[in-house]
Known about the structure:
By secondary structure, the protein is α+β, with helices and mostly antiparallel strands. It has helices at residues 2-17, 72-86; strands at 22-24, 36-41, 45-48, 53-65, 89-92, 95-107, 110-122.
Amino acid sequence: MVNKIIDGISIKINEIFGDEYSIYSEDVEQGFEEPCFFICMLNPNNFDKLGNRSYREYPFDIHYFPRETNEKNFEMNSIAEELFDTLSLIQVSNDLIQGRDMKYEIVDNVLHFKVKYKLFVIKENIETEHMENISINQKLKR
């Protein structure tokens, strides 16, 4: 599921910003070209629910490395505003997933845009042995 969400984020960013911006989801030792995006997953959570359902939260930090200009803050603020609309809905397989808890900050000339995708996941049914018959003998005390 995580890789599908990363793909959905990448596709959506590429649709809006185009091929002029590189998008990375793996570490690049050296040689990445600016301007570019780096998609980084933070700490996902899993909460078991009744039956075979789980509730999962997938938080992401999307880094944006701006061009080498004198107006980096202006560029990063514009990109962040665009990301609010861009990442509010992404397509994963045939489903739309809504981005929540979106916020951003600029640290050391890098934009950190944070978004969380929350969804229910249905686990495959695992066949278990069912109890056969049981009989109970019970008497009331008077």
